[in-house]
Amino acid sequence: MRSSHCILHLINFCSFLNIKLINLVLLLLQHGEIFHFNISNWNYANNYQHNCSILHIFPNAIGTRVAFVDEKGLAFIYNPANGQLIEMPEFCPSINNILWDLEDTENPLLIAYDNLRINVYRYFMNECILNNLSVIASSRKVDDMLKMPTKQITDKIQNDSILITNRNKNINNDTSRSNSLTSTKFSNDKADSNKLATGAIFGNCHLIGVTRLPNNHLPLCSINGELCMLSPTGRLLTQLLTTHQFRLYTKRKGLNIDEKNFKFTGIKKLSYHDMVTYFEQALKCGCFEDAEIFANHLDSQQIWSQLGMSCLRVMNFDLAIRCFRSIQDPGLILAVQRIQKIEDRCLLAGYIAMILKEFDKAQELFLISSEPIAALEMRRDLLHWEDALQLARNLAPKEIPFICREYAIEMEYTGDYINALMHYERALNPSSDNNEDKCLWNSKEKHQPSQSINIVFYEFFWFICYLVVCQISNASLVLYALYVKYTKMCNKHSSKQTAKNADMTTETDRFHPRISPMQNHKHLTIFPKHFIPSIVDTFFLEKRYDYNKEEWSKHISLCNAGIARNAIRLGDLKRGIELASTSGNSNLQKECADILEKCKHWKEAANLYELAGCYESAVIVNLKCKNYIKVSELLMHVTNTPRLHLQYAKARETDGAYKDAVEAYEAAHDFDSVIRLQLEKLNNPNEAIRILNKSHSIEGAKMIAQYFIRNNDQTKAIQYLVISKCFNIAFDLARKHKKMELYAEAIGLNASVSEYQNIAFYFENEKNWYLAGKYYLLAKQYEKAIKHLLHVPYQENSPAIDLALEVVGEANDSRLTHLVIVYLMGETDGIVKDARYLFRLYMVLKQYKEAARTAVIIANEEQINGNYRNAHDLLFSMVQELRQRNIHVPFEMFENLTLLHSYILAKVHVKNGEHLLGARMLIRVSESISKFPAHIVPILTSTVIECQKAGLKSTSFSYAAMLLRPEYRDKLDVKYRRKFETLVRRTDLKTDNVGVLSGDNGSILNQTNYSVTETSTPCPSCGSRLLETSLYCTECRSTIPYCVITGYHVVKNDFATCPGCQFPALYSELMKYVEIYPTPICPMCNIHLTRDSIRRLIDSNDILNEWINSLNVDICEDESNEKKNIELSK
Predict the structure, then answer these.
(1) In whole angstroms, how far apart are CA 1024 and each of 315, 734, 1112?
(2) Same structural domain, 449 and 570
(3) Exposure b/e, 148-185, CB count within 10 A at least 16 = b
(4) Which of 284, 429, 910, 1039 is such that its CA lies 20 to 30 A from the CA of 846?
(5) Is the model's pLDDT at 1012 over the cut of 80?
(6) Which parts pass through the membrane (predicted)?
C-alpha cells in the first residue's frame, strides 16, 4: 500500500511545472496552484489557488514564505501558515528571478533582478496593519460593523474572504505610488477558512531602491545587502547594493556598537549632512541597528524620536525603548513596556497606532480585537465624544449616560449651554440611545393624559415588584392607595392637556429636569417626594443595567447639578434654583449663586449663598440689593472681614442708623469713623475716648481735641492735642490759659529739643526754677539746668538736688561737677547737705570706690543712729552694684554688711522660735557691740535672754555680768536687773550643759536637757574642721562666705545660692526655710522664694572660689604690706 501510494504521487509529480525541495517539503507548481507536499508524512500540507497562471516560484531558505511571479508580470509573497498574500510593489514584468537574503530572516530582504537592474525589497512581517489597513469583511464599513454585536464582527472577519490593499508606505512615513487591488482566495478547506484573521493581515513589502546590474553578471545570493555574483569569466564577485551604502560606516551583525570601533569605520569623518543622509537610508531599508549607530553620533531628539517611532511601527520594542530612553521620555517608555507583552496582535497594533496618533486606524484595530471596548476608552480619553457615543451604542450601552455627562461638561466649559443642558438631560436616562429605553424613559414632550396612565401603570408594576422583593410591612395599604390613584387617572383619560407654566418660556422648556418620567407627575402624592422614582430607578438599574448604586447616585447628582447651572444661564431660574436648593450640595449652590450674581439676580443669589454657607458673598449681594436686615443677621456668622462691616457701616450711616453704623465701624476696625460718629452724632465723648485708648489713632485724637476746644474744656483739649502731635497748638493753648505744667506733663519725653526749650523758657520767666532746670536738662542745656536747679531753696529730700546729680552724670563735665560738690559742701549757702547726696554723686559719676567709701560712712551713721535696716539695704545695694561691675568690694563694707545681716537674722530667728540660731547671731553682734551704740543695753539684754533659752549658760553669765557694770546698770530694765543679779551669783547656772526655758510668772531661768555644744563643719576652702559660726579659717587664713538664712559659714557639699541676690546659702537650710514658712522671703534681698527656683549646685568650686577670693583681697594686700614693712625695717 505504501509503495503503491508513493508511485501514485510520483506519477502526479510529473505533471507539475516546477518543483522545489526545502526542508523535506516539496513546493509544486501546476498552472495557477501552489502545493506544499510533506515528504516525512507523505501528504499535502497546503495548497493555494491563484487567479491566473503562475510562472515561477521562489521560496525562502526555510520554506515559510514563497515569492512567485504570475503570467500578468506581477509578483507576490505568499505565507502558507495563514494564507496571507502580499504584492511586491513596482515589479517590472521583465524580472523573472527573485533571491531571498540569507541573513535577514525576521524582516527579510528580497532581490528581484533581470539582465539590467536589481530591485531591492524589504518584507516586514508585522507592518502592514499599521501602514494602510483595509481589512474589511465583504467591504463592510466600520459604521456597519458597529451595528453588529462584537462576536458577529469577529466571526464575519474569520469566515469571509480577506482583501489586502498594499499601499507602499515607507517606515519613516514617506508614501509612494499605490498598487492595484489583488484578491486572494484561500483553499476551500474548512479548517483553513477558520484561521484567525489577525494572522492574515500582518506583513508589508516595500521597494527600497534599485541597483544597476553589471553586464552579463549572474546574481547568486545576498548576505546583509551585499550581493554575490558570477562574472562572465567565471569569477565570484561581491558588490554592496546602492541602497546599503551606509554599511561602509557601520559594523556587521554580531559586533558590539562601541565607540572604540568607530575609528576603523571612518564614521567620525562624515559631515552632519552625510550622516543624516545615511541615517535616513538605513531607516528606509529597515536596518534599525545601523540607524541607531548614526543616531548615537547625531544625538538629536528629532532623530531619536523618528527612529523610535519607526521601530514601534514594525514592533521592534526593545530598540524603540532604547530610543525613547535616549530622549528621556518616561511616558513613552512605560507605555511601550506595558503593551509589548499583549498576545492579541490586533489589540497590540491598536495600542501602537494610538501611540503613533493614528486614532482612526487604532479604532479599527480595537474593534476587530478581543477587547473592542478599548476603542471606546480611547475616544473618551481623547474627548472625542461624538465618536464615543457612536461606539458606546453597541459596545457599552450602559456607558452612554456617563459619556453624555462628560460631553455636557465640555460643552458647558466652551459656553454651549443649550446643548450642554440637552446632554445633561440625556445622561439622566440609563441608556438614551436604546429603542426600548427611549419608549420607556426618554421623552422630550410633555406627557399626554394617556401617556401618564401608562407611566403610572408602569410605576405600579415595578413598585409591586419592589414591595414583593423587599417585603415591606403594611404593603397592602400602600398598594391599595396606588390602585385608587391609578383608577382616578383612568377616569380622567379624556381630560385636556395641562397648561404650561408661565415662567417656563425659554428654549429649554422641551427638556425635563427629572431623573425619570415619574418625577414630574404631581398626581403621585401618596408617597414622599422622589420616593417612587428613586426605588423604581434603583431596582430597574440594578437588575437590568447592572449599575452600581452609589456610582449611579453620584452620576445623577452631577447631572442635576449641570442642569441647575445651565437652566439658570438660559433663564429658567425656578428650575435651576429648585434643583440647587434641594441638592444639599454647597458647592453647587455656590456655583449657581455665582451665576445668578453675574446675571444680577441679587435676591436669588443671596439666598443660595446663604444656603451654601457662603455668608461673606451673601452679605455682599444683600448690600447690593439694600437688604440691611438680612445683612445684620448674616454678619453674625462672618469673622475677620472688616471690608464687609465697613460697607455695611457706610450704608447704615447714610440711612441715619448711627448706632448700627458705630457697631459696624468698630467691627471693621475703622476707629476714626467710630470716634467721629460718637462726637458729632451721638455726643458721647467718653465712648470716643475709650475707642481712642484702644486704637491710639492720631486723627481720632485730633477730633476729640477739637470737640473739647468747642466745649471750652482746655485741660482735656491740651492733653489730646499732645496725643495728636499738634504740639504748637497745644503750647499756644497752654500758654494762653496758663496750663503749661499740664502741657509739660502731657508732652513727657516724646517732644523735640525745641519744644523743651520753649517750655523751659516759659518756666524761667515764671521763676519756677525746678521745672526750668528740668526742661533745660531735657533740652540738653546742662549749664542752665544746673544753674536753675541749684537756685532752688534747699529742703530735706529735695528733688532738685537729685535732678542736679542726674545732670552732672549726663553732662560728664568736671566744671559742673565742681559746682555741685561746692553746693553739697555748703560753701554757697552755708548749709552742709546730707552725705547721701555725695554718695549718689559718686554713683552717677561711676566713681564706685569713692561711692563705696561714702556708703560705708553713711551706713555707719545710719547704724549709729539705730537705722539698721537702712544701713543694711544701703550696703547691700552698694555690694551688688560693685559685683555687677566686677569691682572689688572693700572688706570693711562686707564686714559691716555681715554684722548688720547677723542682727537681722537674730530678729528673724527669735521671732520664729529658733533660739539657738538667734543666740548665735546675737553673740556675733554683741562681740561688736560698740558698733551699735544706740541699742547696747537692749541688744545685750536680748543676748542674755536668748542664751538662757538656748542653754548657753556661760555666755549668758558673761553678758549678764557686763550689763551689771556701772555704765549699763542704770540703763537696765528693773524687771531684768534682779534676775541677772541672781544669775551672776549662782554657780549652778553658769554651765552650758543645761538650758533655760520660760517658767511660771515669766521666769527665764528654768533648765533644759539638750546639749548646746557647737558643731564643727569643714571649711569650703581647705576642708579643715571649724565651728559652724566661724567665718574665718585659721588653717587657710581665709574669710569664708556665710549662709543668708542661718548666718553659719557655707559648706561645699550643701551649697546653693539665692535666686534673687545670688548670695550663698546652705541648700538644706534654704529648702527647710521655704517649706516651713508660708511666705518665705530672702533676708538679704527681700525677694520671694519658691521651691522651684532653688537649685543645689553640685559643682560649686567656681562660685565658692570667686566669693572667697573677693573677701580675701584686702587681707592679702595687708599681709604683703606688712612683709614689705618688716623687710624695710631690717
Answers:
(1) 100, 75, 18
(2) yes
(3) eebeebbebbbeeebebbbbbbbbeeeeeeebeebebe
(4) 1039
(5) no
(6) 7-29
**Residue 1053 shares a structural domain with residue 992:** no
Exposure string for 714-749, b = 16+ CB within 10 A, e = fewer? bebbbbbbbbbebbebbbebbeeeebbebbbebbee
Kindly state the cell numbers that stand for 582.
434641594
Supply 794's cell numbers.
534747699
The CA–CA distances, whole Å, from 918 to 907, 910, 922, 926, 1017 equal 7, 5, 6, 12, 19
Specify if 772 maps to a domain: no
Q: Rounded distance, CA 1028 to CA 966, Å?
A: 34
Q: Is 731 in contact with 758 (CB distance < 8 Å)?
A: yes
Residue 490: pLDDT over 80 = no
With a CB cutoff of 8 Å and minimum separation 6, the contacts of 292 are: 257, 307, 319, 322, 323
What percent of the chain shows pLDDT beyond 70? 75
Model confidence at 247: pLDDT above 50: yes
Query: What's the total number of domains in the chain?
Result: 5
Report d(CA 589, CA 592) in Å as an integer. Answer: 5
Angle at 211 (CA atoms; ends 208, 214), nearest 5 degrees: 165
Asked if 1025 and 1099 sit in the same domain, the reply is yes
* CA angle (724 as vertex; 722, 728 as ends), nearest 5: 55
Q: How far apart are CA 335 and CA 350, in angstroms?
A: 13
Q: 483: exposed, middle or buried (C-beta count within 10 Å: 0-12, 13-18, 19+)?
A: exposed
With respect to residue 971, please indicate whether it lies within any of the assigned structural domains: yes
User: Is the pLDDT score of 561 beyond 90?
Assistant: yes
Predicted local confidence at residue 987, as pLDDT: 56
CB 66 within 8 A of CB 45: no
Residue 1008 sits in the same domain as residue 1022: no
Which of the listed residues 390, 408, 438 is the one where a domain comes to its end? 390
SS3 937: helix
Cell numbers standing for residue 687:
465712648
- CA-to-CA distance for 786 and 694, rounded, in angstroms? 40
Q: How far is CA 1081 from CA 4, 313, 1045, 1050, 1061, in A?
A: 136, 95, 10, 19, 12
| Domain edge (last residue) among 360, 390, 420 | 390
DSSP 673-691: HHHHHHHHTS--HHHHHHH
Q: Which amino acid is at 1050?
A: V
Mean pLDDT lowest for which of 230-244, 694-708, 849-863, 989-1003?
989-1003
Question: At 784, which helix (H) or strand (E)?
Answer: helix 782-790
Are 430 and 555 in a shared domain? yes
CA 102 to chain centre: 65
pLDDT value of residue 563? 95
Residues 559, 564, 568, 570, CA torsion sign: positive
Angstrom distance (rounded) from CA 699 to CA 718: 15
Q: Is residue 1090 located within the same domain as residue 982?
A: no
Q: Would residue 412 count as lying in a domain?
A: yes
**What is the value of pTM for the model shown?**
0.53
Supply angle C-alpha 548, 553, 557, rounded to 5. 150
Q: Do the domain assignments include residue 499?
A: no
Phi, psi of 676 (to 5 degrees): -60, -45
Beta bridge partners of 54: 70
Q: What is the pLDDT of residues 533-542, one digit of tens each?
A: 343 344 444 4
Q: Which domain holds residue 437?
A: 398-493+504-583
CA distance 231 to 218: 7
d(CA 430, CA 437): 8
Higher pLDDT, 1093 or 524: 1093
CA distances from 899 to 614, 868, 906, 911, 1041 (A): 77, 10, 11, 19, 13
Q: Is residue 404 domain-shared with residue 371, that is, in the same domain?
A: no
Both 385 and 404 in one domain: the answer is: no
Q: Return the CATH number at 1101.
A: 3.30.40.10
